[in-house]
Amino acid sequence: MESKEQVKQENPENKVTELPANAYKELAPGEEYNPILPADKPATEITGYSLVMGVIMAIIFSAATAYSGLKIGQVFEAAIPIAIIAVGVSAALRKKNALGQNVIIQSIGSSSGVVVAGAIFTIPGLYILQAKYPEIEVNFWQIFFASLLGGILGILFLIPFRKYFVKDMHGKLPFPEATATTEILMTGEKGGNKAKLLVVSGVIGGLFDFCFAQFRLWSEVITSKIIPAGAVLADKYKMVFKFNVSSLIFSFGYLVGLRYALIIVCGSLLSWLVLVPLVNEIGVLGAVAVGGINPFEAMSAEMIFNSYVRNIGIGAIAMAGIIGIIKSSDSIKTAFSMATGKKVATGSHEQTTKRTDRDLKMSVVAIFLLFALLAVFTFLLVGVEITPTQSVVALIAIGVISFLFTTVAANAIAIVGSNPVSGMTLMTLILVSVILVGVGVGGPKGMVSALIIGGIVCTALSMAGGFVTDLKIGYWIGSTPAKQQSYKFIGTLVSAATVGAVIYILNEAYGFVLSPENPNPMVAPQANAMAAIIEPLMAGSGVSWMMLAVGAVIAILVNWLGVSPLAFALGMFIPIQLNTPLIVGGLLNHMINKKGKDPKLTNARHQRAILISSGFIAGAALFGVIGALIIFITGNSNALNFGLWNDPDGVGAQIAALVAFTALVIYFVWESKRAKVE
Fold it and tell me: Is the per-residue pLDDT at 600 higher than 60?
């Protein structure tokens, strides 16, 4: 806890209410970034209030996101709604020195979303397989320890990379989600018109998404099928273009910027306009050659993407991760040197003594990591009940894969604000299943082992991606990294216990498999996909190594051309409709930032656009929580459907969506251009 003297040393009358001008820009040689909370002064961060609020947020949002993810397959990001609540409560209570405390509240509370994502993508697969294999036993402790240990590994593996991602790469990576969350936290300091603009933008963005998600006033996705030629291309050649009108996604595009938006969208276009039609054409040529039937003729473009092309994206992500590891090898060497106590040349001793540069000691991290790995080994031995030799092999797989993919997860969040954890988990399940079969673990026990190991790795990667966002927020504001790192463990513990209880209760109440006892089971789409992959893998078949290899080659070629392979691979893997709106935001960013006669006015417009984007993202996330609660309370996903369209995804609904989205973009541009030089 902070002492009373520390609290008194801060002067709220002279507090800074704006991020420095170089907050989002690359630093010139010798230039330093000075955060809001001065590095040479103590900051009020850990208090009884911030700790209790953080734990409450972790419990509430763990339960909400777990239900949402298992019911409809969508896990909303908790960081932004928690930041809004933290700012609102601190303002209502007139808390002094609230900024540092709000960072801690957000950091502890946001453990919920990342732990939930790791758990629900894999663990319910145990219940799904249990319906086929009654000998499989599932209990609360398996869910709890898989989530807890995975979360702890994610924190520990990321700490050595904090300086590289949040400081060394300052201005080189856009960090869209961290930017939005930081802007929200800063509104508590700004107040006045800027806070009002964030609220108004939040309401507009939230209501916009609510109109299609709950009211069904227009379609969420516009497709090329609405024109006759597009329908022919989709049906005959499996060539489809899609566009999601969500205010959240196009706002991410503004924060990402035009360069990364273009790279991501090009990856999507390769998958959907080249590879999907190519797979279909191979089927056509094969049918002509042997006088048979094209096996892909009855499949939609979406089915071909999910069954075949997405595996190419997974291979590209894996190779992009390896390339990233090679590129950041110097940081890895430095981290190991620090962990083993060897001296590392830093160029300035002052950097290691600043409060804002103070991480947990690498020796402490190494000891904690050793204990965490021992705990994983014990859990595998006792909780999964495999032999000591098999446990050692599984432990090595968990440690190596988690460590290597940590940088991939952090990089993905830093670039697009989206963690490809499902793709990396699929790759993990494939590798782990092959390894387990090789050491004699097969059948139902092998399925349980693979899913629990996948759960640990999935949670570790999800945590690494989420935690780098927290640390970047702390870097901009001036939090103490060691305190963020220490108290993140509390959020992980609380979230793991909550999600374990929620999954257990939901299985008892609804189940995950259709049966006479459970006529309306939870959908759990990701866990169903993981379970479907595990069965054939344990039988020694079902791995599309060629597709994975093609993706790896594409990533190598893209990197050779000087393009970010991870951004491109993310575009290949994520469905096209979730990527194409980024280009609109990127183009708006380019347009607003074009050099004009008055550089100060251009910068003012850009800062205002960042605030509007942050408001749209915050509103969409918050209204998403409200929508999930409505579905939870009513048990009906169409509870608020106005019934305006006979087909909510038909031509009329899609045209309405295009008109509505155009109006939203016009508002964004108009509101941004209202900026004035202060």
Answer: yes
